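Section 4.2 – Deliverable D4.2 (structural model, holo form)

The reporting period included a commitment to supply a predicted holo structure for the target in complex with iron/sulfur cluster. Inputs used:
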Amino acid sequence: MSARSFHVWTIGCQMNLADSESLARQLLAAGYREAPDLDHADIAILNTCVVRQASEDRVYAKLEELRRWKAPGRTIAVTGCIVGKEGERLRERFPHLDAVVPIGAYRSFIEGLAVGRDPSLGEPLPVAGRTGVSHYLTVVQGCDHNCTFCIVPRVRGREVHKPMRRVLDECRRAVEEGAREVVLLGQNVDDYRDPEGGGGLAALVREVAQVPGLKRVRFMTSHPQDLEMELLELMASCDRVAHELQLPVQSGDDRVLKRMARGYQVRHYRAIVERARQLMPDLGLYTDVIVGFPGETEEAFQNTRRLMEEIQFDVVHLAQYSPRPGTFAADRMPDEVPAEEKRRRLNELLALQREIAARRAARWLGRTVEVLVEGLDELGRPYGRNREGKRTVIRRARPAGTPRDDGIGRGMAAVGELVRVRVEEASAGQLAGSLVA
Ligand code: SF4
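Output (structure tokens):
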């Protein structure tokens, strides 16, 4: 009898991608086969997100779709953030659902899949060929903050920190399997504390950067209240650490920040950015902003706009506030900014950020950047990210007009290699250029 096959359908953040990867490894190690899509699988696993209503609705739509898919011998399981929010209620609403799997409780789930074999699982085992150039590794699960708009603490629980020893073992294994970059993940990764030795995120990043064979270390997501200056200094001084900060500001208005319970003021955020840019003038700065939060007056909104103009972020993930039942804001603060007004504010900031992002990208024109090659794009050109996190595509040959195509091109930029690229085109989305010998 051939092994049963599975497919993990994933939506949401990088932490969900990392969880899906871990689950897939454990299933492979237990003898299951991975199917390319749900149609070809015997076990459908949905790894879900509920951070916005739209994400949650996608999960329900998928579960509806799976009613037709379900047949004898086929199993449907749900994991991810919806489990913390809805739990077993999901099975009442979707009787064709077989298993509701809390995040990380994969071992008992796999043991529960009766396949007549011994799934003696512990840590995920090495599975050849699964690791790409970039390996996502969750070091902090859950979140101890209580931002009033956020459902994450409720659905993912309080923080659990992975011992540094295990993180390093996992990094070494990832390198053996082909990874050249590790991305350390946490909802609030700055809170990291090694439960065995007590070291914080800076200590962890320093150790990971020394793993032989690794070329780059990134981490996300940071919190302005917890980010330590020592970490910025390490980023600036260690060649292998990316110059990239994912640092959500959420609002440029102190009153709104207080209502969001973010724990910092705008001047504190500004001070972090100033120091980071002193140390790393080209820092890639990524942020999140919510518009239309309860209590966001026109003046408060304009403060956010001004902060965006002043700081000039590379990327802003913009969202209009949508109440998530179970959060303090949804339960206790009237959603008072009308939908149309939220849309106006969102569109205004989207237009502003488009201009800023194009200007920020233009700073790279004519300069040489260091790119870790991750793969080939749909046109067969090598692509990767520069040290500041910007996607960069490498042309096959030198541009027309240069003396000759001397063979530097696709063949010379192998996946996993760190190469130097002279930037010839720059847009908000990506950079493009030629290899420099
Ligand atoms: S820091 Fe705030 S926004 Fe981020 S996950 Fe925790 S509660 Fe949510």
